[in-house]
Amino acid sequence: MFHCERSFFNHLHGLISFLTHSRDHDKSTIRSCEYTSRVDGMKISLDSLQVVESIARRGTFGLAGNELHRAPSSLSYVVQKLESDLGIRVFDRSGHRVRLTRAGTVLVEEGRQVLRSARELEDRARRTEAGWENELAIATNGLVPFDALLSFIPSFQAAISHTRLRFSHDLAGDCWQALFDNRVDLVIGAIGNPPAVHELSIVPVGDLKPVFVVSPRHPLAATMEPLACSAPARVKLVVASVMRPMSVY
């Protein structure tokens, strides 16, 4: 029994030593890979993606060179370096026209999205430098039917297609607050006095004249019009807001 127990612990000790050594070796390998990744950086550049995409689309290095205004030998160097850096084959050159490998197909399909995003990023940066907004946040309220604004959206997008429109529906009194808090850029249908905001541009669009209304079951509904000024004083009323003309912006 003692011999068996001693043999068991000897095997257990050996197994633990092996696992510990393997774990330390794996950690060392991981740290080495992480360090190499940090030093080497990205191995795929936008230029190499553009070269590979053009070759795949045109079918030959010569046609791609004409499109990119570069010598075919320079394109061949870019592809060979990319294949060497990634450890893959991008093209099958055995035929008259080059063909994408499976890895090359993935590279081109995903690369086209990267190139598209890069071009959009360049355009946004130029537009921002020129003073254009990427997004215009607009607050409206129930005073302005949203259907009345829909007809203006196509005209706006035709003139400024790169600016997104984001609408929010706020209560009448919250529109000014949204503008004051910089949550929106434009308010349509705001009522009352505007807040003291620096460089605030205001364009009046009309006046809002409150109308005195009652329920058909209210005692005043049976009173002959026009109502005398003393008529509302004889019944109970619930006033939702102060009834005075207000400007709409």
TrEMBL record:
SUPFAM superfamilies in the cross-refs: Periplasmic binding protein-like II, Winged helix' DNA-binding domain
HTH lysR-type domain sequence ranges: 44-101
Keyword GTP-binding in annotation: no
Pfam families referenced in this protein's UniProt entry, alphabetically: HTH_1 (PF00126), LysR_substrate (PF03466)
Alphabetical keyword list: DNA-binding, Transcription, Transcription regulation
Presence of keyword DNA-binding: yes
PROSITE patterns per the UniProt record, alphabetical: HTH_LYSR (PS50931)
Family per similarity comment: Belongs to the LysR transcriptional regulatory family.
Protein name per the record: HTH lysR-type domain-containing protein
Lineage: Bacteria, Pseudomonadati, Pseudomonadota, Betaproteobacteria, Burkholderiales
